[in-house]
Q: What sequence folds into this?
């Protein structure tokens, strides 16, 4: 017999994870109160009140079948992911990456949730943790008041790191006499801005010595290694950017008779009209005037018009292994779940995926029976296991990767890397299909 444990359900935060959670719950017949403080109260990085607003890159990662991010997307589609459907409707050319027009993307998510009959939208800030069943998905830019309330509940076990967003330039302002279209994959989805050895030396020197924003009380916080500012990479060594976002491998410079550039900066389409281009991998904490000066040393960007400068903002996340159960609810309180980047997953689709998991766990929790965790041989299950089982001393945000999956002995017989990944991908998809069929739980409208 179904055990009704729900008077009402609250989702706090309408970013990628919160939006996905609300959608998944409502599709199961659960009434959801979705709280979003924007646009009344903005974060240091957001500029609108739209749900699912992207503040860093406009790419949701690779769509190649054997890439970890592609597997994660395949798993999310099995649960009819709102975020992926919105991304497909807002897609812009980016080779094998799923890049979107960020405005169309967030508008589609907002429109869908506002129109859902079981979702009530509340445009107000939540400063205390609700006592009713709640999902907190406020992301790495959680308001200080709510952060303090969470700390009072789970203990003073919050960590912090810095994240950054790359600049966006007007396409028509790029000097095409010093840029060419192409990619390492053979398509024409990236605008490449090459530099000679001398040009790179001048650029590198200016980048290393440029003025950056002072971090004040956050000075002791560390950058997340997966999203380092370009100037931080440059400080680590003269050639370090050449092995990162400025690597020339796989690109031929038509201005140098087919020779490979010494360094290259890639620009990626950022809106459906193709009028805006973002600097790939160029997240930065430089002062705005310095960004124009230093990035203007790149020949193709000498007269570039910046429509958005790169920004740096503080990100906070939970020390999840000591705070969350494997089913992503708080050890301190059974009916409180956390989703999104604040749990310690890194990346857009990873954040949305936690929203899917939390919704499935809540649906099982409603029945009063033991909750079955996502299988560890799936990418979603592996991510959840990582953020709830890793040694807290070494816990840092994590992207989807094949190293998280549990590996059976039989895979040791497969020596080819592509074949191994194909085997793991097939196993994950089939495992998740079986899991989904087992946990299908019909939740009546009255239960919400």
A:
């Amino acid at each position: 017999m179904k055990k009704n444990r729900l008077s009402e359900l609250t989702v706090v935060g309408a970013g990628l994870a919160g939006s996905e959670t609300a959608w998944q719950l409502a599709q199961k017949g659960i009434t959801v109160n979705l709280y979003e403080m924007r646009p009344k109260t903005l974060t240091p990085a957001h500029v609108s009140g739209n749900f699912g607003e992207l503040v860093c890159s406009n790419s949701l990662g690779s769509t190649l079948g054997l890439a970890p991010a592609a597997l994660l997307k395949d798993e999310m589609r099995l649960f009819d992911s709102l975020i992926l459907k919105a991304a497909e409707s807002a897609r812009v050319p980016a080779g094998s990456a799923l890049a979107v027009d960020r405005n169309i993307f967030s508008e589609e998510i907002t429109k869908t949730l506002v129109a859902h009959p079981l979702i009530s939208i509340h445009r107000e800030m939540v400063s205390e943790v609700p006592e009713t069943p709640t999902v907190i998905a406020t992301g790495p830019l959680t308001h200080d008041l709510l952060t303090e309330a969470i700390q009072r509940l789970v203990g003073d076990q919050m960590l912090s790191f810095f994240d950054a967003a790359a600049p966006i330039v007007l396409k028509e302002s790029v000097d095409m006499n010093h840029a060419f279209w192409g990619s390492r994959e053979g398509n024409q989805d990236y605008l490449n801005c090459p530099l000679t050895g001398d040009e790179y030396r001048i650029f590198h020197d200016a980048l290393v010595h440029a003025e950056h924003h002072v971090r004040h009380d956050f000075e002791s916080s560390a950058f997340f290694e997966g999203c380092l500012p370009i100037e931080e990479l440059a400080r680590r060594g003269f050639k370090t950017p050449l092995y990162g976002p400025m690597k020339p491998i796989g690109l031929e410079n038509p201005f140098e008779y087919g020779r490979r550039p010494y360094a290259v900066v890639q620009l990626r389409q950022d809106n459906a009209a193709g009028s805006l281009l973002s600097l790939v991998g160029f997240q930065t904490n430089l002062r705005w005037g310095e960004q124009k000066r230093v990035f203007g040393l790149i020949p193709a960007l000498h007269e570039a018009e910046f429509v958005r400068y790169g920004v740096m903002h503080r990100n906070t996340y939970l020390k999840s292994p000591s705070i969350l159960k494997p089913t992503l609810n708080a050890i301190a309180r059974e009916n409180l779940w956390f989703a999104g980047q604040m749990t310690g997953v890194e990346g857009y689709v990873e954040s949305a995926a936690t929203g899917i998991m939390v919704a499935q766990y809540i649906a099982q929790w409603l029945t009063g029976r033991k909750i079955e965790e996502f299988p560890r041989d799936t990418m979603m299950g592996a991510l959840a296991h990582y953020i709830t089982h890793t040694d807290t001393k070494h816990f840092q945000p994590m992207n989807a990767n094949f190293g998280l999956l549990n590996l059976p002995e039989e895979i040791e017989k497969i020596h080819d890397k592509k074949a191994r990944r194909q085997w793991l991908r097939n196993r994950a998809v089939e495992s998740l299909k079986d899991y989904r069929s087992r946990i299908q739980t019909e939740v009546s409208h009255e239960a919400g």
Q: What stands out?
A: Residues 216-220, 442-448 have pLDDT under 50 and may be disordered. The chain has two domains: 9-162+316-447, 167-309.
